[in-house]
Amino acid sequence: MTRRNPFPTALPFLPEKRSLRTLRQAAAECQGCDLYRNATQTVFGDGDPHAELMFVGEQPGNDEDLQGKPFVGPSGRLLRKAAAEAGLDPDRIYITNVVKHFRWEPRGKRRIHKKPSEAQMAACLPWLHAEIEQVRPRGLVCLGATAAQALLGKDFRVSRQRGELVTSPLAELVLATVHPSAILRAPDDETRALETRRFVEDLTVMARALRRGRPRAAEVHAPLR
């Protein structure tokens, strides 16, 4: 007997007629993997529906799970501040995550982030691909290794290609950098300040490319699934 896959796919939950509104409504009922069981709610993308730039993180955190919107906690505040310093308008971006439910484990009274599995990410990717198709951003920034590898392939390494524009069918301009939460976990203020400056520099690469057109990019073969 074939063992049933416990993480099928979100595809059956996607609406036939698609817009960001109908996708958001349908995602609220998604049971494409088991993460919905322990999450407060689905956390769909949010922002300018006609945004030129889209940011993609890994998954919602505790604050996002409770409020129902992505990047509303400390990471989101850091992201918006860095984006503004890089010359990007924080009100004209769209922000989302690869995974739409918060995966966590208990630690005392706290809920601590736990990285989603590859199967859970694969199950949830149809929502992200649908968002990209609706927003059609010129630029896309992957925040952190999980988002970068989910969208650019398992061989992609943020440590090697951070801040570089790469070729991808996802958007005209694609770049990966660290997740803001990694900066917030820096061991001291000096390191945090240094990493924040590097983060702003990465976003400045995207800001300049959006203004001036696409420079020559490194080659990455990662077909949109």
Notes on the protein architecture:
There is one protein chain. This protein is an alpha/beta fold and about 220 residues long. The protein is built from eight helices and eight strands, in the order H-E-E-H-H-E-E-E-H-E-H-H-E-E-H-H. A hairpin with a 6-residue loop joins strand 7 and strand 8 (about 175). The longest helix has 24 residues, at about 190-210. The protein is globular and about 40 Å long. The model is unreliable at about 220-225 (pLDDT under 50).
* Global structural class: alpha/beta
Task: Give the % helix.
Answer: 25-40%
Count of beta strands? 8
Strand content: 5-15%
Compute the average pLDDT: 92
Describe this structure in a few short sentences.
The protein has 8 helices and 8 strands, in the order H-E-E-H-H-E-E-E-H-E-H-H-E-E-H-H. The protein has a 6-stranded mixed sheet with strand order 1-3-2-6-8-7, with helices on both faces. It has a two-stranded antiparallel sheet with strand order 4-5. By secondary structure, it is of the alpha/beta class.
Keyphrases for this structure?
single chain, 225 residues, alpha/beta, six-stranded mixed β-sheet, two-stranded antiparallel ribbon, 8 helices, 8 strands, disordered C terminus
Topology:
Layout: H1 20-27, E1 46-47, E2 53-57, H2 62-67, H3 74-85, E3 93-97, E4 104-107, E5 110-113, H4 118-135, E6 139-143, H5 145-152, H6 158-161, E7 165-166, E8 173-177, H7 180-184, H8 189-212
Parallel strand pairs: 2-3, 2-6, 6-8
Antiparallel strand pairs: 1-3, 4-5, 7-8
